Amino acid sequence: EIVMTQSPATLSVSPGERATLSCRASQSVSSNLAWYQQKPGQAPRLLIYGASTRATGIPARFSGSGSGTEFTLTISSLQSEDFAVYYCQGSGTFGQGTKVEIK
Amino acid sequence: QLQLQESGPGLVKPSETLSLTCTVSGGSISSSSYYWGWIRQPPGKGLEWIGSIYYSGSTYYNPSLKSRVTISVDTSKNQFSLKLSSVTAADTAVYYCGSAAGMWWFDPWGQGTLVTVSS
Fold first, then answer.
1. Minimal Cα–Cα distance from B109 to chain A, Å?
2. Which of A21, A64, B101, B107 qualifies as a cystine partner to A46, CB 3.0-4.6 A?
């Protein structure tokens, strides 16, 4: 069974700064990697699929990279609405999440 | 555009079977373009994929839950369903349904429904 490990658990960032979130798979998931954003009381929202393709309506400040076992989600300039929990998902298995909070 | 809505009991007794239904609107559940899946989230915790079904009826389950899970499709009602047997308090969670164009990439999701397992 694949294990997805996200780091860090919490990321404190000031508005306007760049945020870099990491996700590691215990075995290769090729490019079968998605990123989701979840805000309190809401369902998750798909941001990135196929490791690097933005979902419909997702702003260009969100970008994904990586393949195999190492993946990164970058938010180039954090907006107030971006403070949330982010999950990666590799071939079905979710990571434990990274909370992006205001510094 | 696709919209999904979960429905079912909010309270289930231990050892019984949890049953939920997801109603799809804005598209056909028989479309070859989508997989249909269930994901859950215990209160204050992370997400767990439960399983998915393709329009053909092929099913894919999380190995950790496989022995207790059944997902099925009712094309006449444009719905798909989840049954989770022998539930315990550890199965208390918000249960989401979702559509996945790429088998794993769920978009959109339903709003979620809280199911509590308690006597």
1. 7
2. B107
Number of residues written out for chain B: 119
Sequence-separated (6 or more) residues with CB below 8 Å from residue A95? A4, A5, A6, A23, A87, A88, A89, B46
Residue count (chain A): 103
Q: How many CB atoms lie within 10 A of CB B116?
A: 13
Q: Would you call A46 and B102 a contact, using CB atoms and an 8 Å cutoff? A: no
Q: Compute the C-alpha angle A24/A29/A33, nearest 5°.
A: 75
Check: CB of residue B106 under 8 Å from CB of residue A46.
yes
Contact A87 B47 (CB under 8 A): yes
Q: What angle do CA B32, B38, B43 make, to 5 degrees?
A: 155
pLDDT, chain A, mean: 96
Q: Tell me if A44 sits within 8 A of A35, measured CB to CB.
A: no
A1, A46, A95 member nearest B106 (Cβ): A46
Q: Are B113 and B95 in contact (CB under 8 A)?
A: yes
Q: What is the pLDDT of residue B104?
A: 85
Neighbours of A12 (CB within 10 A): 12
**Residue B62: closest CA among chain A residues belongs to which residue?**
A92
Is the Cβ pair B107, A87 closer than 8 Å? no
What are B69-83's pLDDT values in tens digits? 999 999 999 999 999
- Within 8 A by CB and 6+ apart from A4, the residues are A23, A24, A25, A26, A88, A89, A90, A93, A94, A95, A96
